[in-house]
C-alpha cells in the first residue's frame, strides 16, 4: 500500500500557495508526492489491465496528467492544478476514448470516475445514435446494480442540451439521455477514505463496475 498522506499534504499546501515561486521552493516535496502518486497509478494500471485489455502496454507516464494547468482551460491565474490526476484510456490520457479516471485532491475533493466527458461532435452523434438504436442495452448498463452500488448518482446529468439534439424528436422516450453532452459517472472520496489501506481496491471495484458502460461508449464511438 502506497502511503498517500504526503501526497494529500503537498496538495493541501499547494492549494494555499499556488504560485511558481512557492513550487520552485518546494520542488523536492512535489517530486516526492509525484513519485508516490505514480506508484499508486502503476499499481492501479497493472490491475486494471486484467479486466480492461485496452489498457495493455500502457505505462504510468502514458496516463498521468501534468500538474501544470493547460492555458486553454485556465480559469484563474493559478499556474498549477490542485490535484494529481490520471486518465486510463486506450492510447493514453489524451486519446478521445472513454476510460477510467482518478484524481487526488485534499479536502475531500478526490474523485474516481469512468466514461467519456464531452466527446467530440462526431463521437457524441454516434453515442446518441447507439442509444437510440439500442435503448434497452443502454438502460440496462446505466441501471446495473453493480454500477449504481459504486456510483450511486448514476450518469452525471449536469452536461445536457436544453432541447432535443438535431435529428431527434423532443418527445422521444429517451430524450433525457439523448440530450446529454457527457456520459460519465463519478464519486468522491474523503481524505480519510483515501488514506485507508483498501483505497486502491475501492478504485478498482468502481472501475470494474463501470467497464461495461465504458465498453458500450467506445463501441459506439468506434462506429462501423
Describe the model:
- It is a single chain.
- With 224 residues, the chain is of the alpha+beta class.
- It is 46% helix and 12% strand.
- The chain contains 10 helices and 4 strands; from the N terminus they run ααααβββααααβαα.
- The protein has helices at 5-16, 20-25, 27-48, 60-63, 121-133, 135-142, 145-150, 175-178, 191-194, 199-222, and strands at residues 84-89, 99-104, 110-116, 183-189.
- It has a 4-stranded antiparallel sheet with strand order 1-2-3-4.
- The longest helix is centred in the C-terminal third of the chain and has 24 residues, at 199-222.
- The radius of gyration is 18 Å and the shape is globular.
- The termini are far apart.
What layout of secondary structure does this protein have?
Elements: H1 5-16, H2 20-25, H3 27-48, H4 60-63, E1 84-89, E2 99-104, E3 110-116, H5 121-133, H6 135-142, H7 145-150, H8 175-178, E4 183-189, H9 191-194, H10 199-222
Antiparallel strand pairs: 1-2, 2-3, 3-4
Helix pairs in contact: 1-3, 3-10, 5-6, 5-10
